[in-house]
Specification:
By secondary structure, this protein is of the alpha/beta class. The chain has one domain: 3-Layer(aba) Sandwich (Rossmann fold). Helices cover 33% and strands 15% of the residues. It is built from eight helices and nine strands. The protein has a seven-stranded parallel sheet, with helices on both faces. Strands 1-2 form a two-stranded antiparallel sheet. A hairpin with a 6-residue loop joins strand 1 and strand 2. The protein is globular, with a radius of gyration of 18 Å. The chain binds nicotinamide-adenine-dinucleotide. The site of nicotinamide-adenine-dinucleotide has 30 residues, from helix 1, strand 4 and helix 7.
């Protein structure tokens, strides 16, 4: 599909995302240009001519629940935090200390929804910090209804012969081992009706030649989800995942070795919808899976890819 072909209309920013580089940083939502959308859904007029945006309104699907999210300050995790707060949940979220600015804004949005927010600047590659996060959540909210394992990192490596094993280890620690640790500490506190939602990726299914290590972690997350779901089904705890396609979040421009030009047409060539997704467009799947709307879903991976066909 040519980048110059006419893109379908959309109320979200679709093409010509401005060149930008957040490389070497952990990535901030506040620096994205154009800004991403975490809170508004796209609607259409009856003629199918004019898309417009409208705020997501909760309807009590998670009323008085308590949710713990890793990487909840920005991107997809931010949108999940805000939507779940609008559905009635109090939220604890974990983030990297460098992302304080994003965390403050997300906290303010949770509070604006009338719910309580607890923010924890912790590096979850350390097992003791995963324990700290779960302990602090229980201390404040006294229950753990939903765990969202969402934090991740990725670094591009074009040639496997040059792959840096310390980066591979860090990627697995951040994306996979933290999920084991968070889940190990969380599960004993979760009751029948609780659920876990993990962030997988299109890369788990398609592979990605530049991200062999990251893609492998996402494959592990899909298998983790299916295996744990079978183990925990008798306990009434559902375990699912969402596999986003190309979503407009700080992960993209902050990725090490990702050239700023790559942002210019992000998602346009790859996705049949000819644009990157906005965080809210996949965050809704987390709400589905975590809430009673998803009561018959377990061991599932929902793909939100703008039409990119998954293999498997
Ligand atoms: N953006 C995409 O195109 C895309 C596509 C597929 C999957 N995903 C997945 O979605 C999830 C969310 O990513 P995003 O795109 O919203 O990017 P993001 O950069 O906004 O979120 C990543 C989060 O991970 C957190 N994090 C990273 N390392 C951490 C550490 N050591 N300790 C604590 N927190 C840490 C960061 O604080 C940040 O909040 C990730 O699992 C990612 O793999 C994203």
């Amino acid at each position: 599909m040519s980048k110059d072909s006419e893109a379908p209309p959309t109320a979200y920013p679709s093409t010509s995302l401005k060149k930008q580089d957040q490389e070497g940083t952990k990535g901030l939502d506040s620096l994205l240009e154009p800004g991403a959308n975490w809170t508004q859904l796209e609607f259409w007029d009856d003629e199918g001519k004019a898309p417009y945006l409208k705020d997501y309104e909760g309807r009590g699907l998670l009323k008085d629940k308590a949710v713990l999210i890793t990487g909840g300050d920005s991107g997809i995790g931010r949108s999940v935090a805000i939507l779940m707060a609008r559905e009635g949940a109090d939220i604890t979220f974990v983030y990297l200390p460098e992302e304080e600015e994003d965390a403050k804004w997300t906290k303010s949005q949770i509070e604006k929804a009338g719910r309580q927010a607890q923010t924890l600047a912790l590096d979850i590659t350390k097992e003791e910090n995963c324990k700290k996060a779960v302990d602090a959540h229980i201390e404040k909210f006294k229950k753990l209804s939903v765990l969202v394992n969402n934090s991740a990192m990725q670094e591009i490596c074009q040639d496997f012969r040059e792959i840096d094993l310390s980066v591979v280890e860090k990627t697995f620690r951040t994306n996979v081992l933290s999920m084991f640790a968070m889940t190990k500490f969380a599960l004993p506190l979760m009751k029948r009706g609780s659920s876990i939602v993990n962030s997988c990726s299109v890369a788990a299914y398609m592979g990605n030649p530049q991200l062999v290590d990251y893609s492998s972690t996402k494959g592990a997350i899909a298998t983790f989800t299916r295996s744990l779901a079978q183990q925990q089904a008798p306990n009434g705890i559902r375990v699912n995942a969402v596999a986003p396609g190309i979503i407009w979040t700080p992960l993209q421009p902050a990725t090490k070795n990702n050239p700023p030009e790559a942002m210019d047409s992000l998602g346009v060539q790859e996705a049949p919808l000819q644009r990157p997704g906005m965080p809210i467009e996949v965050a809704t799947a987390y709400v589905l899976l975590a809430s009673p709307l998803g009561s018959y879903f377990t061991g599932e991976v929902i793909h939100g890819t703008g039409g990119i066909e998954m293999q498997g």
